[in-house]
Amino acid sequence: MSELPPARGFSAGNFGLKLLRGVRVVVRTISIRRVTVFRLTLTRSFSKMDLSHLVTIGLWPAKRAPLSGADLDYFAQHGVDKTIADLIEQLAKQKPADPYKFIAEAASKLAKSGGGAQETAPKAEAKPKAEPKAEVKAEPKAKAEAKAPKVDSRAESRAAAAPSAGNGENDARIGEVGTAIRELKEKLKKDGVSSKDINDNADVKNLVAELQALKAGGGSGAPAAAAPKAAPKDTAAPKEKAKKAPKTTEVVAAKQPAKGGGMDVKKADDVPEWYAQVIMKSELIEQYPVKGCFILRPWAYKIWESIQGWLDCEIKKMGVDNCYFPMFIPKCYMDKESEHLADFAPELAMVTKIGDRDIDEPVAIRPTSETAMYAAFSNWVQSHRDLPVKCNQWCSVVRWEVKQTTPFLRTREFLWQEGHTAYADKAGAEKEVLQILELYARVYEDLLAVPVVRGTKTKAETFPGADYTMTVENFIPATGRAIQGATSHHLGQNFSKMFDITFQDPADPTGKKMEFAFQNSWGMTQRTIGVMIMVHGDDRGLVLPPRIAGIQVVIVPVGIKASSTDEEKAELATVCMEHYMALSQAGLRVKLDDDTTNSPGWRFNHWEMKGVPLRIELGPMDLKKGEFVMAKRNVVDPKAGKSTGKLATLVAEVKQTLEDIHSEMYQKALDERAPRLVSVDEWKDFSPQLNQGRLVLVPFCGEPDCEEVIKNMTKEEAQGDEEVEGGLRMGAKSLCVPHEEKYNLKCPTKCINPACKCTTVKKRVLFGRSY
Ligand SMILES: [Zn+2]
């Protein structure tokens, strides 16, 4: 398709003209097979989104053929552009107080006089529209169409950058195209075109295709290939072919197997295989030829961004600033802090060569950034006025795991955030440790709908170099194993003494006494996503909690049969689009999947596999009743998961349902965990409970040596199927000393280890097999 030549009074580039101060005229052609809709829209550039200030005038049917070079000649011959240019000129000359009224009246006159080009088409009834119109982008149709895929990816990256932010530009454009569809149809109808021909009209289909491309930018991980593919084909299609198109589509759809997703293995039968399938089939993960490293596909990264967006906002409220430190740790830092890095040494990746020559001083790739950051902190902190220092970085770290790696849960490189802070006072630092712990708990509970146990690590499990480590611990019901969710460490003065992070003691009258800063470090990783998959996923695939789902709602038009009238089809498409827009504008991440190359059943499975929390089904019958069907992904029984809503209150009902889904998912996970978290007072019950996939709350003295004994005993008493990779039996380790008193009921004073002499135990400690 070629572009319209610049009409008089228009700039060629954008087909817009600055008319009066703050008022802009935008012309757009929706070209195409039978009718060329030539629209002139006024916008006020200072309030582009104020739809009440938009006036649309003039719909001129031009020619029953795709817009071509011949059309341009046709326009020139028949004065279409001249008509508008004249109007613009008049506007510019007269500068009417109310340009909208002026244009409306002019349009009305034009319509009466048969203005514009009319040859084969019936007489136009250019009517000033009373209702507000969506914003028009100053871009000719042809150009916009060619750009469609790009618009997509831009929109996607925008959505990614700001998960909760709306996509105003895209929405406005969607609104524009949606309006154009309705107007085009009205127009065709008034022109006496039969409803069948209207819906066979390639114009309509083209516009729908454009909408698809735009919509896909609303948060879809799936490519919007359908739109760009369909558009040129339909545009070029001869009339006969276009007429047949809808039927062909239906037949093709009907012939396709109703798949689109589906797992080959049940979660209960083989968790590792199930997990491997879920993450591949739901398009979260792609394999990569470096062992233990995986590609996070957009569908996964969107989840990470949601988590990141929320947490980043929360830590900023606490005064934490983001920064970035180099990924390479120099040898001099490693030497400085032997104990801390020694713990990471077996997993430390070193750069020892550049090209084929050895480098003089090998550098490590950060497994964590304490050493890198604290050397800098030392320079930054001179007086107590320089404190607190609160830094965080979002980055990846490398720990060259020798154990079996599992995407998200245990990988050699992983994404995380690491917060590092330094305080003048211990109390301030300790308060922060708990605040951060609570944020981590909320990531799991409020975003991922996964319950956690908040607690403190035993000595044996404390982070190397920390005074103490606080943790949130998750439970995976399918395997009966625990998994550490995130940790917040109080480092005391251990690192500040090593890295000389000191300040003058303000209380000292001589001003000479130096104090060491009190420090914390805290981190949360992409493991969050793995835990969420493990806890919520089911035999149909991924189940995403609404607050982090890349797409929260998918709308699937249903009930279109070979016998459906074109009117029914058109109405359904329009209503689906309206609701898509309404939900998008309400801030929800929505996908309208009206790609008829796949059957509705295929699409159901596809989005279920990908875990989209809520599906809206809309069919002709629903429209008649003013209703829609909602299907909740989190409910296993398809019938029980369905409910009916009223179209009039769609947005409110969808929002409420998403909240309900979150609560239900959380409650379900909690209910599954509750009977698996048992108090055990004597050793004889320890392994039997553990071997049934439970976590045990036991009286424990807290000593590392004693813990080692327990670990070994549980390893010996493990059942045959409790093997980790390599045929080794897995023992239980301590997970945490829970903070909440409800986990500490009737705690015996004797340590659970029969050989342990300790009889002054105060707290139950959570033990379990863990990832
Ligand atoms: Zn003990």
From TrEMBL:
Limits of the Aminoacyl-transfer RNA synthetases class-II family profile domain: 301-545
UniProt signal peptide: none
Matches recorded under SUPFAM superfamilies: C-terminal domain of ProRS, Class II aaRS ABD-related, Class II aaRS and biotin synthetases, Dimerization-anchoring domain of cAMP-dependent PK regulatory subunit
Catalysis: reaction(s): tRNA(Pro) + L-proline + ATP = L-prolyl-tRNA(Pro) + AMP + diphosphate
Composition bias, Basic and acidic residues: 122-157
InterPro entries linked to this entry: aa-tRNA-synt_IIb, aa-tRNA-synth_II, aa-tRNA-synth_II/BPL/LPL, Anticodon-bd, Anticodon-bd_dom_sf, Pro-tRNA-ligase_IIa, Pro-tRNA-ligase_IIa_arc-type, Pro-tRNA_ligase_II_C
A Gene Ontology BP annotation from the UniProt entry: prolyl-tRNA aminoacylation
Region (Disordered): 113-174, 218-266
Listed GO CC annotations: aminoacyl-tRNA synthetase multienzyme complex; cytoplasm
Gene Ontology MF terms in the entry: ATP binding; proline-tRNA ligase activity
Alphabetic keyword roster: Aminoacyl-tRNA synthetase, ATP-binding, Ligase, Nucleotide-binding, Protein biosynthesis
Entry's EC annotation: 6.1.1.15
Compositional bias (Low complexity): 158-169, 222-235
UniProt name for this protein: proline--tRNA ligase
Organism encoding this protein: Polarella glacialis (Dinoflagellate)
